[in-house]
Known about the structure:
With 154 residues, the chain is mostly helical. It has helices spanning 2-16, 27-46, 54-74, 93-102, 104-128, 130-139, 141-149.
Amino acid sequence: WISLLVASWGGLDALLRFPAAHDLESPFSIKQFALLMMKTMAYAIGMEGFRARFAVFLTVCAYTWALPVLYSMALPLDPSEQVLLNDANDVDLAVRMWRLMVNSHERRSCYMSCRGWCYKSLAEASETSGLVRYALCAASPEHRSFYTKKVRSV
Length: 154
């Protein structure tokens, strides 16, 4: 469970903050390092026959520690590209989740953002796939009327 929590929290947080540049002394970097250490310790403690399977442990550790290296390699070299478009997105995932649970305005904003993204993705998919368009029209009367209006009559 610890490994699952650490992997999802650290990885998703890094993904959401991706283009932002963080120093090694920043709270983000310290948190990511601490999460990696906890994940490594969880693997070491949870592995039966640690000495007999040391090669497996090293392989798992190499995979675990390779992702942060790849993350740092993927960062843009130009400092002007290492900045987020909005500094409000440079917030820890746990803080975001807390704000989402406590603040009704934040929940509504998140809901509207996700709804807009979902509709946009469905519209794009329905333009390229007849099967998606058919499923969308079968599921939603609003979309059925929208797509029937687009049909050209001669």
